[in-house]
Amino acid sequence: MAEDSLKPGCVLCRATDEDIIVQNDKWRIIFVDDVHYPGFCRVIWKKHIREMTDLSLEDRQVLMQAVWHVETALRKVMQPDKINIASLGNQVSHLHWHIIPRFNDDVHFPDPIWAAAKRSAKADRLDSRKSLLPELRKTIIALCQNSY
Ligand SMILES: [Zn+2]
Question: What is the pLDDT of residues 131-141, one digit of tens each?
């Protein structure tokens, strides 16, 4: 990545402790380390870009295709009750998308995961979802390798 496409001090330009599932020269897909949301993935554009409309039409398509691959893999492997997709960037204004598998027994459902918790976590349900992560990783990689 060229130095002039990165921003000094940005935690997404120079992340070091990420669990990267798959990446190419434009984006990377990572597992988000969230105890309540196994399978929570983030697609991060590698250059320091603020908004979707700062990208060319072609690159918007490239980025969203990665998001759709994650959604497809999450549906197939984890069979959530709903997928939440969000692009906020208020805290880190470096373009990224959150893709979150939601279940009607998760701690925030039906509210967004950033809202106040509605119930406590069910450890057995979380454990069974965590056990799916190797298969989820393989499925995301396979989808991305077949087309991006
Ligand atoms: Zn950045």
Answer: 999 999 999 99
